[in-house]
Design goal:
The chain is of the alpha/beta class. Helix content is 43%, strand content 18%. It is built from 14 helices and 11 strands. The longest helix has 17 residues. The N and C termini lie far apart (77 Å). Bound molecules: glutamine. The site of glutamine has 10 residues, from loops.
């Protein structure tokens, strides 16, 4: 039997290997943890232990694949963490991003402030993908009845699995933006969406990890990335709750604060709209409180 490498030797080699390919060296650590099937603490405690040959072979195969093609680690491991929970992902859904956790934070804070804990409310997540927004809100807000729509059957398949694994009560609908909710006459107190918002001509600036692996349907939108917001806003009148008003929360691209604000203002001139920045000080979230439903166009 040949020499068995110790864990720290493998980790060092793998990190340097990724650096050579201009990849994030940290991926080596996460991928090795995944193959060893250990948590972070245990992983660091057993650095001196030898690594099984077959395990090393499988790890190297994934590592090389990542280095050469840019395949995201989440597609190799099959999951990503979001808001403290593990979500299943594959090539049919956008890999969860930390910015979207900030979107959740805004919705949760707003709901807790406005709705008393025993008052039921309806939330609709538009373009749910892996279901992260709908499922997290259903689990964080016990008084919420949550619906989630997506046009992609394959995305909904993943989202439904995630809801089941995490025991979240979410009703999934298939269709384009708000259309399936309109068909079922669903009216929501909160409409939330992280729609595709990257302009087609920005594709060249994206890394291969994103461009070649996240679904284009979840990334790109026409009209400088604004098409999805325009479509959703045009459908809003049929899904808002007239007597009480509805709040809309959008995740946006960093240059879309004003354009998205204007799209909403045009439909609801008297609404109260705020643009929030993410932790990197980039415009990332728009919150619109629709209070002028009677006068809306
Ligand atoms: N936030 C994602 C990114 O920057 C884009 C997702 C989206 O368009 N909603 O890659």
């Amino acid at each position: 039997m040949g020499k068995r490498f110790k864990q720290y030797e493998v980790l060092k080699w793998a990190s340097l290997f990724l650096e050579k390919y201009h990849r994030e060296p940290k991926v080596a650590e996460l991928l090795l943890q995944y193959h060893l099937d250990v948590e972070r603490t245990k992983f660091f405690a057993r650095m001196q232990e030898p690594i099984d040959q077959q395990l090393l072979f499988n790890f190297e195969e994934d590592l090389i694949n990542h280095a050469l093609t840019g395949i995201p680690i989440q597609h190799l491991t099959g999951y990503e963490m979001f808001y403290g929970r593990q979500f299943k992902v594959d090539e049919n859904v956008l890999i969860p991003r930390p910015e979207t956790e900030e979107l959740i934070e805004h919705v949760v804070t707003y709901v807790r402030k406005i709705f008393s804990s025993n008052k039921p409310l309806t939330i609709l997540d538009v373009g749910t993908g892996s279901g992260i927004i709908a499922i997290t809100l259903a689990l964080e807000l016990e008084n919420a009845e949550v619906y989630a729509a997506d046009i992609s059957e394959k995305a909904l398949h993943i989202a439904k699995q995630n809801a089941e694994i995490l025991h979240a009560n979410v009703e999934f609908l298939q269709g384009d933006f708000l259309s399936p909710a309109i068909e079922q006459e669903i009216k929501a107190d909160i409409i939330v969406s992280n729609p595709p918002y990257i302009a087609q001509d920005e594709a060249k600036e994206l890394s291969d990890t994103v461009k070649n692996f996240d679904p284009s349907l979840a990334l790109f939108a026409e009209e400088e990335g604004l098409a999805a917001y325009k479509k959703i806003v045009s459908q809003l009148p049929e899904c808002i709750i007239n007597e009480k008003g509805t709040s809309v929360f959008f995740e946006i691209g960093q240059s879309q604060g004003n354009p998205v604000k204007n799209i909403l203002k045009e439909m609801y001139p008297k609404s109260h709209i705020e643009v929030f920045q993410d932790i990197n000080k980039k415009d990332r979230i728009v919150h619109c409180q629709i209070s002028d439903v009677q006068e809306s166009k």
